[in-house]
Amino acid sequence: MTTTDLINIIGTIAFAISGYLVGYGKRLDVLGVVITALLTAVGGGMMRDALVGHIPQVFLRTDALIVVFATLAAAWLFRLERRRRAALTAAFIVADAIGLAAFSITGAQVGVALHLNLFGVVVLAFVTAVGGGIARDILVNKVPMILRSDLYGSIAILIGILMYLLAKAGWSNALTLNALFIGGCLLRLTAYRFHWQLPGFQNRHREQSRQDKGAA
Questions:
Q1: In Å, what is the CA distance from 155 to each residue of 10, 49, 58?
Q2: Beta carbons within 10 angstroms of residue 204's beta carbon
Q3: What is the residue-wise DSSP string for 10-63?
Q4: What's the rounded Cα separation, in Å, for the pair 15 and 25?
Q5: Where are the transmembrane segments (predicted)?
Q6: Maximum pairwise Cα distance, the chain
Q7: Between 25 and 37, where is the model more confident?
Q8: What is the pTM of this model?
Q9: Quick one: CA torsion of 184, 119, 9, 186, rounded to 10 degrees?
């Protein structure tokens, strides 16, 4: 098993868990939870493959499906949803951070293998990492996370850029991939912990309202 395969499996497990927790949080039935987990885990990869004109790998290979259903079975067996709310939130954030970093790397690797330019590599990293989460959030009537909180999509873009530069420099190997994966996870968790966010129009609107009230 290569480093890429291992990272992809870890990302699939992590996103399946996050999809499971979202489905439970929305009080969906068994089928609904399975759908949210599948969308989160394989949706981004399907979008990526469609972009580059490939048949989605999940239609050709069953390993991702096996990983998703095994993860769901384990989550149900250990009654993950019965943990305390704080523990569930922590589990969701950690799982999402792991999936984000893992799928950003695997998506970027597809772009590098196809000899795409920097923009192409970044787009594939971004779509692979956040596509499933976007589909999941839309399905459960939520504003996608990348549009409203923390440094989320930005991390996928950063990983895509670094993957492109590492490939161009000939430094793409197991050591650098693992370092990039760990660094991406830590950056996402740190951004959540310290509430790092991109500037938002809502925040600017609130600040302007405060200034107007002060002037009045």
A1: 18, 21, 25
A2: 10
A3: HHHHHHHHHHHHHHHHTT--HHHHHHHHHHHHHHHHHHHHHHTT---GGGT--H
A4: 15
A5: 6-23, 30-47, 59-78, 90-112, 118-139, 151-171, 177-196
A6: 66
A7: 37
A8: 0.87
A9: 0
